[in-house]
Amino acid sequence: MDNLLESQVKAGLFRIFKDRFNINLNELGEEYFEKSILGKDFQLSARDLLYIYFDIKKEFNIIIPEEDIASGKFSTLKGLIEMVANQKLLDKVSV
């Protein structure tokens, strides 16, 4: 994955989590990137996933594939970063 793209995606996701949930992801270590965002560390609810879904669509101007959600990519920060970056790459290729 492109490091610049990954950095841009992280910055956007960090902004979403800060603005929406007042969670500063910059203060968390890399080990949190593989933890469930619905788990005790983040304490987000299923409803919060909807907010994240729509915030990601708006922030990155992408369509999130249903299979990415069903496969569990939508449940961790690492998965979110990979999912968004892959969609941005696909958008570049299809232009």
Low-pLDDT segments, ≥5 res: none
SSE order, one letter for each helix or strand: HHHH
CATH class: Mainly Alpha
What's the domain count?
Answer: 1
CATH architecture: Orthogonal Bundle
Q: What's the CATH topology label?
A: Non-ribosomal Peptide Synthetase Peptidyl Carrier Protein, Chain A
- Count of DSSP strands: 0
How is the biggest beta sheet arranged?
A: none
Q: What is the fourth-level CATH superfamily?
A: ACP-like
Span between termini: 19 Å
- The portion of residues assigned to helices is 55-70%
Mean pLDDT: 92
Radius of gyration: 13 Å
From the spread of the alpha carbons, the general shape counts as globular
How large is the count of helical segments?
Answer: 4
Helix/strand/pairing category: mainly alpha
**Residues in β-strands, percent:** under 5%
Protein name: Peptide maturation system acyl carrier-related protein
